[in-house]
Amino acid sequence: MKDTINNFDQLLAPDAVEFSFDTTGWKVLAGVAVVLIILIIIGSIRRVQKNRYRKEALLLMREVHGDTVEQLREINRILRRTAYTASRDPQVKQISGKQWCKYLLSHTPPYPLETDFIEPALKAIYQPDNNINEHLLTKYHQYAIFWIRKHEF
To answer: Where on the tree of life does the source sit, at the highest rank (predicted)?
Structure first.
């Protein structure tokens, strides 16, 4: 056993392996990295272009002004335009009243507040002689912004 321990001094270590980026593996890895970066950039550009209509609708929502009925009509017009742009569903242009209310609610995640104000707001659009208060307008405006940001098709 003593001879084995003493013979360790005579073992030779192998030569050091040289590190180089000239090997095929590094070129393949660089190619994969470049392709992934290009795909990420293309995906980001497409997502921005796809959601540009949301940004335009939110900008239009900031410009809503006038009396209460005019504001409600303008908000409704923006919502319809946004819904049609997102879905290209011709039904969006034709439905009104309760059907429009159901359509809005069916294409958005649950609204964190009550949605009982939507029907009265829509009635006020089609029957302007109803009593409309600023509170109803504010709630409908907030819901419209929520819908534009979160709707799904």
So the answer is: Bacteria
